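Posting this for the archive.
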Amino acid sequence: MTAMEKIEQIRDSRWFSNLTTIIIIAYACILGFKTLDDVDTNYDFFLKFADYFVTVYFVFELAIKMVAEKKFVNFFKSGWNLFDFIIVLITLLPLESSNYAAIARLMRVFRILRLFTARPELKAIIDMLIKAIPAIIDIVILMFIIFYIYAIIGNFFFVDLQSGLWKDFLVSMLTLFRVLTFEDWTDVMYEAMEVYPWAWAYFVSFIIIAAFVFFNLFVAVIIGEMQKLQEADMKEEIHEDSLKLDILLEEMKSLREEISLLKKEIK
């Protein structure tokens, strides 16, 4: 096995992915530990060492991925590789001793996002969500139309209520969002029912349409994309099995030809 093949094997190995995941999670714990007010100053050296260690490891991991590519340019053709490269590059910028030290400390938090690229399963989920964005946007637009209609109706009928939850269009939208999240929505409804006894129909219909129908639409879109992803993986596995079967049949054919030649030579 050549050195390049060993590097490719390390890059694609499960243990390397798990090691990166463990280091990122440990680093996330360290960042949270730093925010505690009662952290002993004796741990300051350990925290700095851990920060430098994670930086060096990320550079090492990125170098492994770059070297493993047959062509260096191919590394930047992947969106996930670009994501890794940008995060590592930002954290390497010497901003600690400048006026942007606070920004540099904030950028460290984004290292945790590399957990997406360290786990193939997380990458698959993110890719699925990205593919679902067009359908989600359509649902959001339709949902905004429902919000808009109900906000105008709510402002028209409930504008004089003492709570002021319907005093204008924007406040009405926020009130409807509160109703959608079920945050004391019954208080809002009962206040309106004191003036308009039929107001329950307004709120109940909004919850049925916005909360139940649209929530299920979001779930349906995500499940549909997951099914597409599973079907794609299944087709890829079937294609790989078909290629292996073709290779096996070719080998059997060549073996039969060799056997027939040997029989002829023996005769």
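Residues 17 and 118 are 6 Å apart (CA to CA). The chain has a mean pLDDT of 79.
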